[in-house]
From TrEMBL:
Residues 31-95 form the RNA polymerase sigma-70 region domain. InterPro entries: NTF2-like_dom_sf, RNA_pol_sigma-70-like, RNA_pol_sigma-70_dom, RNA_pol_sigma-G_actinobac, RNA_pol_sigma70_ECF_CS, RNA_pol_sigma70_r2, RNA_pol_sigma70_r4_t2, RNA_pol_sigma_r2. This is RNA polymerase sigma factor. NCBIfam families: PRK08241.1 (NF006089), sigma70-ECF (TIGR02937), SigX5 (TIGR02960). Residues 138-187 form the RNA polymerase sigma factor 70 region 4 type domain. Keywords: DNA-binding, Sigma factor, Transcription, Transcription regulation. Belongs to the sigma-70 factor family. ECF subfamily. The keyword Transmembrane does not apply. Interacts transiently with the RNA polymerase catalytic core formed by RpoA, RpoB, RpoC and RpoZ (2 alpha, 1 beta, 1 beta' and 1 omega subunit) to form the RNA polymerase holoenzyme that can initiate transcription. It comes from Amycolatopsis rubida.
Amino acid sequence: MTDASPLGTAEAAFIEAVRTGDPARLALITERYRRELQVHCYRMLANYEDAQDLTQETFLRAWNKRESFKGHAALRTWLYRIATNACLDFLDKRNDRTPVPSELPDAELPYLQPYPDRMLPEDPQESVVARETIELAFIVAVQHLPPRQRAALILRDVLGWPAPTAAEALKSTVASVTSALQRARVTMREQLPDRRLDWRSPATHELSRDEREVVKSYIDAHERNDLDRLTALLRDDLRFAMLPDPGAVITTAKDAVDGWVSGGLFQRGYDDWRCIATTVNRMPAAALYLRTPGDPAYRLLNLAVLHIADGQIAELTGFEVAGKPWLGLAPAL
């Protein structure tokens, strides 16, 4: 994803389209990069809808700056540079997107949204690292970094850019980018102490057999209102959050289920479930549909995103997902 050989096919085609003033051709050339640029913006912002907007802003800026592209860098590098600075400009203007204090949990990110796997890049090289760098834990950890440290980490450690290329993109010096990267790595180690931190090496992006089996059991327990089975699936140090509600809790399995029941779940009116297995952020998830008395249909209620370890659910992050068609989930069954 770094600078390519002198004037590759895409670069030559882009320059020719600029010369001939062909906006349709320019749009066609840049459109092939949309998905990966959107993932890049999502890593920067942790919000799918903002990532969509900033990707569109990237294409608008690319159009306005089209005459400046001379092919000295790969077209992909040029677009990433524009996208990175569009995100930095966005973060500079948003007081609610300041770095998250290190002691606050993921549920203190009310703007965090899941990323639909169907919108991930199809490029196999991107998919090799996608799971490690698109999982919720990584996305949340990155939000603890100041914006320019965030950009330095993503450009250098996730995309694998050389220091001079990253420095040019950030309009900075190699020394400044290197320093920002070193500070970012320290914070990431604090936020992800048990996770692999070398995102440039190959990583799996397929769900394991254990993960698929646990999701199947979780869905079955929900649909049968089998609280004993649901409790058995949860670790006794479960991390639970329901966004956008503030606060994540570490709780025992029994206390978690008891809390859900006391809140009304699995009681009359909230006991007729249908669930669909899915994936977001390369993580196993279950879309939960509830049918209330008198309603012939099951209505989409929540999305439960699961982090599974050793055959049990270690983390459960719930999202209110009604009215979010970009997830690709049917609103009713």
